[in-house]
Amino acid sequence: MTVPLMGAILFPLCFLLWARPDRMLGLLLVAGIFPAASALTLGSVCLQPSLVPGLAFISYVVLQKLLGARYPGQDSASRLCGPMMLATAWALVGSIVMPRLFRNQVHVWPQKQDLVGGQVLLTPTFGNISQDTYLLLNVLLMVLAAQYLTRWQVKLSRLYYAYLAAGWLVVVLCVWQFGSRVGGLPFPKTFFYSNTGWAVLDNQMAGPVPRINATFSEPSACASYLAGILFSTVWVTLKGYKVRFSRLLIAASALGMCLTTSTTGFAAVAVGALLMPIMVVATGAARLLGRIGQLAMICAVLLGVGGLALATFSPHTVESAQMIASSTAEKKNSVSYQERSQADADSLTAFAETYGLGVGWGSNRSSSLIPGLLATVGAVGVICLAVFDWRLMKSAAWALRAAPGSPETMVVEGVMAALAGRLTAACISGPTIGLPDFYVLIAVAIAAIVRVQMLNRAATAVPVGALLAAE
Length: 471
Known about the structure:
The chain has one domain. The protein contains 17 helices and six strands. The chain has helices at 5-17, 21-31, 51-66, 74-101, 113-116, 126-148, 156-183, 189-192, 219-238, 246-260, 263-282, 288-313, 315-329, 335-353, 369-402, 407-429, 436-470; strands at 40-42, 45-47, 107-108, 120-121, 205-206, 209-210. The strands form three sheets. The chain has a two-stranded antiparallel sheet. Strand 1 and strand 2 (45-47) form a beta hairpin. Helix 3 crosses helix 6 (126-148) and helix 9 packs parallel to helix 11 (263-282). The chain is globular, with a radius of gyration of 23 Å. The chain crosses the membrane at residues 37-63, 84-102, 133-149, 161-179, 223-241, 248-280, 292-313, 369-388, 438-454. This is O-antigen polymerase.
């Protein structure tokens, strides 16, 4: 057993913050940008940095519950989490039953694809156990955090600001790594990439331009994270919320995404740009269409001025940009794209061959989210997740109407936009979303919605009480 430098930093911090669980969740959101690092190494098993504050938070809340503590909105939060808990229960049962029910009848792509180089026959593996463990911890963290954060003493906006601060840190690290790849600046790879269980792709090139992955395992993972930051900052800016440096973070996160040269990130931004007018109309904020036009004009002017300056003073940069754009447009002809498409097609085949039941959580690894979910948890799990998403969006829309402009609704809108960005990128190219910080963001959104519900009940209860007293 070894404790890398990341663990030597996180373990003492969690010890100091153990009695401040809201601060531990903020630390978790920052630690979530280091998925390729290890906080604790046990042979071939590495503990993700974000799990250190996550496990510390779980231990605190479980101890409080054993001592009889209750949180003001825990019942409402649990009801909102209900479909997700059902999906988790189905996934855990399926990971035990399905690999044995369909043993040697279905071909799957294993979790460690680099060890076999192709599909294998379905059998129970250690991947079922490890992925079950991660899923159970993530959902338990989500439920407990959603319950705890309904306490009025906790400022949810601080957690949202911690998420944005993590976004700033990712951008800084992207620029730092770019300087290292181009100018030879020292970049602490052993600190950021200490997770021996992950294959880190930090030497990829797009023509003459280095592809940047920052602290993530590959450029697409970094771009997926930045997509959440970009979606969130653009949306809260359009809605007129006063979030410090949010406009600068829009430009910074866009710069970081460009440094990754990831097709996933570019495609996610394109999808977001197409969906934004629809979301504006759907949320009843048609007045924002003018702001979208203004933002588009500002971006066009900045791109035009920046492109003209680069063409004048650095023509080689323009040539590199043209080469990146060409390679992105021709992505469908690449070997990697064909391999990813084949993995998704094989996952859909596994879904059909198991009669829609799935091969079990942890048995198959796809290239994108939807085929991966269909192949592993089947139709039942996907329906439960769809119900959870629908209830969460419906409750968020109600909260925005019930308390417009409140701190809670700012958190709801910012976090829901961030989740939308991450999900969009995962649907394009992401086998799953198994990082604890994503589940904490869901918990923050649920807690904010529940707080609005409690405020609404308190506001309607006062006139009724006064009326009864008058009688």
